[in-house]
């Protein structure tokens, strides 16, 4: 993989990574164990408040999940110095703050999954879990945590 390949891909996609957000409490933004990088749960930029199926539509949730993916990538870049060290997106796990009748959790999390595939191509294909939650921290519409395989 050539140097700056992922940075160039982000530019092609019109994505500019923010500075990685700080943890919301007493925990690490990420932990690396061997070749695995575990990224703590992140939410969308701007800290929107509300539930899918009440305040937000599935499409808005998709955009929140994409924004959250960008936040995750900012943490990964902060941890590794470059996204070119990512060998594979291993897993995404989403917690969707949703009305009890909401059934499109999977469509919401596609926002983050699609982003990982757009950025990393076949290395972005990952395992995934998504859960409906009665509530999440600060009434965010969703929180996503993730695992990456990285070059040591």
What report would you give on this structure?
Helix 2 crosses helix 3. The protein has a five-stranded mixed sheet, covered by helices on one side. The chain has 152 residues and is of the alpha+beta class. It has one domain: 60s Ribosomal Protein L30, Chain: A (2-Layer Sandwich). The protein is built from three helices and five strands, in the order αββαβαββ.
Quick summary of this structure?
This protein has 3 helices and 5 strands; from the N terminus they run αββαβαββ. It has helices at 5-13, 58-80, 105-120; strands spanning 30-33, 36-42, 86-97, 127-133, 142-150. Helix 2 packs across helix 3 (105-120).
Write the SSE topology.
Elements: H1 5-13, E1 30-33, E2 36-42, H2 58-80, E3 86-97, H3 105-120, E4 127-133, E5 142-150
Parallel strand pairs: 3-4
Antiparallel strand pairs: 1-2, 2-5, 3-5
Helix pairs in contact: 2-3
Task: Profile the largest sheet.
Answer: 5 strands, mixed
CATH architecture: 2-Layer Sandwich
CATH topology: 60s Ribosomal Protein L30, Chain: A
SSE string, helix = H, strand = E?
A: HEEHEHEE
Contiguous low-pLDDT stretches (5 residues minimum) are none
Portion of residues within helices: 25-40%
CATH superfamily, please? Answer: RutC-like
**Overall pLDDT level:** 96
- Number of continuous helical runs: 3
Number of beta-strand segments: 5
> How far apart are the termini?
15 Å
Shape: globular
Structural class: alpha+beta
Beta-strand fraction estimate: 25-35%
Radius of gyration: 15 Å
With strands numbered from the N-terminus, the spatial order across the biggest sheet is 1-2-5-3-4
């Amino acid at each position: 993989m050539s140097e700056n390949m992922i940075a160039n891909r982000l530019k092609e996609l019109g994505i500019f990574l923010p500075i990685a957000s700080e943890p919301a409490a007493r925990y690490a933004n990420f932990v690396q164990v061997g070749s695995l990088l575990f990224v703590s749960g992140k939410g969308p930029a701007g800290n929107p408040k509300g539930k899918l199926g009440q305040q937000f539509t599935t499409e808005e949730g998709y955009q929140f999940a994409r924004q959250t993916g960008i936040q995750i990538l900012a943490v990964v870049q902060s941890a590794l110095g470059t996204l070119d060290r990512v060998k594979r997106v291993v897993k995404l796990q989403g917690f969707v703050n949703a009305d009890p009748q909401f059934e499109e959790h999977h469509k919401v999390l596609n926002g983050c999954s699609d982003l990982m595939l757009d950025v990393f191509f076949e290395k972005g294909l990952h395992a995934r879990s998504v859960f409906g939650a009665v509530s999440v921290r600060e009434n965010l519409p969703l929180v996503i945590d993730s695992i990456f395989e990285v070059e040591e």
